[in-house]
Amino acid sequence: MAEKKLVEAITSMDEDFAQWYTDVVKKAELIEYTSVKGCMAIKPYGYAIWELIQKQLDERFKETGVENVYMPMFIPESLLQKEKDHVEGFAPEVAWVTHGGLNELQERLCVRPTSETLFCDFYKNDIHSYRDLPKVYNQWCSVVRWEKETRPFLRSREFLWQEGHTAHATMEEAEERTIQMLNVYADFCEQVLAIPVIRGKKTDKEKFAGAEATYTIEALMHDGKALQSGTSHNFGDGFAKAFGIQFTDRDNKLKYVYQTSWGMTTRLIGAIIMVHGDDSGLVLPPRVAPVQIMIVPIQQKKEGVLEMAYALRDRLGGFRVKVDDTDKSPGWKFSEQEMRGIPIRVEIGPKDIEAGRCVICRRDTGEKIEVRLEDLEEKADEILEQMQKDMLERARAHRDAHTHTAVNMAELEDILNNEPGFVKAMWCGDQACEDQIKEKFAATSRCMPFEQEQISDTCVCCGRPAKKMVYWGRAY
Amino acid sequence: MAEKKLVEAITSMDEDFAQWYTDVVKKAELIEYTSVKGCMAIKPYGYAIWELIQKQLDERFKETGVENVYMPMFIPESLLQKEKDHVEGFAPEVAWVTHGGLNELQERLCVRPTSETLFCDFYKNDIHSYRDLPKVYNQWCSVVRWEKETRPFLRSREFLWQEGHTAHATMEEAEERTIQMLNVYADFCEQVLAIPVIRGKKTDKEKFAGAEATYTIEALMHDGKALQSGTSHNFGDGFAKAFGIQFTDRDNKLKYVYQTSWGMTTRLIGAIIMVHGDDSGLVLPPRVAPVQIMIVPIQQKKEGVLEMAYALRDRLGGFRVKVDDTDKSPGWKFSEQEMRGIPIRVEIGPKDIEAGRCVICRRDTGEKIEVRLEDLEEKADEILEQMQKDMLERARAHRDAHTHTAVNMAELEDILNNEPGFVKAMWCGDQACEDQIKEKFAATSRCMPFEQEQISDTCVCCGRPAKKMVYWGRAY
């Protein structure tokens, strides 16, 4: 009875995907709403996922020479205004501090929505010579954007992220770093989060405020909507000119630096939920699962059962493992483990002990595998590895099955309305067509993928000669 | 010549300790001042120290069952006001957000100066039964206090810290956790930072706004001034009553929870500088040194020297090790390594290679040790271990030599003015005496140490019967 209650409490994803998402976020104990409108409290289980993301992403950063720093959280208004496009993009959605203690500030400060301006202000004083380049800095922090509509992880007024900010002697080197970090992001999503992504370039309409070029990785959620999962920007020397960041080059000439920035956020947790989750709750890829193996003793009051459960836990010490020794029923424990997306459940009861075996149940497939106790470590390792791979392949198959092509507006509309997913279609390069598609179908250009295909010769919208293939879609 | 310039650029610590501190902070490249008044940019080397502090402190937390979470950075004004003493303590020094985007907020929000109120608001909804207790949560974040006078690491308008917030079923359990975390802090300071601390209780005058009891660890800096290095507070059920945090206990009665909080900050980096530094710059305890060993090749253009330096680096892979292969002179490299406080320098040149040896130079003592190349790993390990221990003992000896006793106001004044350090003196327990000492000598009660001694029978100030021995001192 008890286990039914827990499972019944979440909405089916096919019935109401938005409600299913909210249910999972709450029932898996990832977040809690707070008295601060639009801001969430990230609970221990949600934060443990973020810690695993941070650790593995930070390691990958450091392998490419990234150094971590910390800049102030406030930006004086005059600093924010130095780069014209940038301030236009961000000023409407920042939080303003006007008072410090009992006094009104002479100049108001915004809480950083992103820190390009602060890094520029820092680099201006820190970079003098070509010997000081490149600078490849990153910070882990929270940022604030005053969103009107918010959803846990996907869009909140405050969120956690990392923001990398680099400075280089040449445009070529900046471009190389921009692409390098996009590839770090893409590999991380695929290898760690088991989320396949499309790598590409944003159109001018969709690029970051102040950037010369924005690159993106785009993932497809279970409901066929796209999620921008990480972006990497090449600023050229635009910010350097606005802030006066110059260096003396080898040829003794004073030159402006070229800059990049790149970021990933707690939004990734939303992506994990919406790519891998099912009607029993969360499904976590083993590499970001705070608990990879939950051991559930069956008839735990019988002699020797709990002892065996603890002994197995100790043997599985190389994994993130726990024993559920609470006084709940096994069925209740099963559905809790499922709701929390713990990759492997190990069931062990008196009969298993007698037979010298246990049962491993895979969270993603529900498959039950009988394992001899002496093979447990090896089997657990094998199954977790397999699960990590299978989850990526399953997500890739889902994405491919939900990627269509359209050669005209009628086809585009038909697909967007009836078979949600990515639509590959040609584009003339004119923003008017992009605007029209957005207005008519509420779909946006997700990216111009690096891997271009020739779907047709003409723009899906205006019929003029096409220049680029674009991924279109409705997006979070 | 070059090396001289670098060394000469810092003020001697005995000449002007404050200027010496500022010089070290800048020349060791720990921080940079920013356009945001009172806020600093933490540079890669400074942040790497913080990362090592975080990692080792977080591990110790998790061993005691702490779980990490993340609460919003904003506190609605009405929430801040719920606990009377707390709001009085913090309201005068918070930054207020009054506008979100283009609109004025209905209720202004302060940027968290500390998060008791947010955790209380969260616990109110999250705790229902004794089964939900204890809650032992912590977050790593930045906080803002609108200080008038600021100094890098010691006092800045924004700083990084961790804040633990716990909830318990009984007062005893809360008190136990309060002391447990104080001991974690003390052990961490001594074992990792090589900083000896006095553990004790704050007087009512000095306790945290809203706390029933505040415990502290107090360290003595090289100049004889005290630095409060970590605090742990027992709130009793005061906050629980103000916020209505109740649970149903085993006896089916509704009860208020008992709470604690405890924090340590980037101020610890200031403590490391001021306890261990010398006139050549920073001296880092090996356990928090981002680079533990710097290999400096001598006559590096000679055949085989750089190759040997790299080979040694590879052999020392178990440590945090680097080769300084820049084109600077060895002397310049030496003074840079000294300025940055890197514990061990390994010098290797053509003659050393021929003789099958190298020279290890200890940063703390300047001692040069000839080591046969085949013994290098073992010797390096031994020396780093020894250095970690010696630094703690040296700091302890300095503190003990600068701890005096006073039995009356004349003695107290004489010591404070002529032999800066801790003064142990008896106290009647009356705040009037505490106020008087502060007013006359600008010294405060640092703590009532757990290890009490009987210095005399009467209060150092008023001569009435004494109740407690107190550590007094001038403090940062």
TrEMBL record, chains A, B:
One of its GO terms (biological process) is prolyl-tRNA aminoacylation. Transmembrane segments: none annotated. Its main location: cytoplasm. Its EC number is 6.1.1.15. It catalyses: tRNA(Pro) + L-proline + ATP = L-prolyl-tRNA(Pro) + AMP + diphosphate. Residues 366-393 form a coiled coil. It is found in: Cytoplasm. It is an enzyme of class 6 (ligase). PROSITE patterns: AA_TRNA_LIGASE_II. SMART domains: ProRS-C_1. GO terms for cellular component: aminoacyl-tRNA synthetase multienzyme complex; cytoplasm. The keyword Membrane does not apply. The keyword Nucleotidyltransferase does not apply. It comes from the Bacteria. GO terms for molecular function: ATP binding; catalytic activity, acting on a protein; proline-tRNA ligase activity; transferase activity. Belongs to the class-II aminoacyl-tRNA synthetase family. ProS type 3 subfamily. Catalyzes the attachment of proline to tRNA(Pro) in a two-step reaction: proline is first activated by ATP to form Pro-AMP and then transferred to the acceptor end of tRNA(Pro). Homodimer. Consists of three domains: the N-terminal catalytic domain, the anticodon-binding domain and the C-terminal extension. HAMAP family: Pro_tRNA_synth_type3. NCBIfam families: proS_fam_I. This is Proline--tRNA ligase. It comes from Candidatus Eisenbergiella merdavium. The lineage of its organism: Bacteria, Bacillati, Bacillota, Clostridia, Lachnospirales.
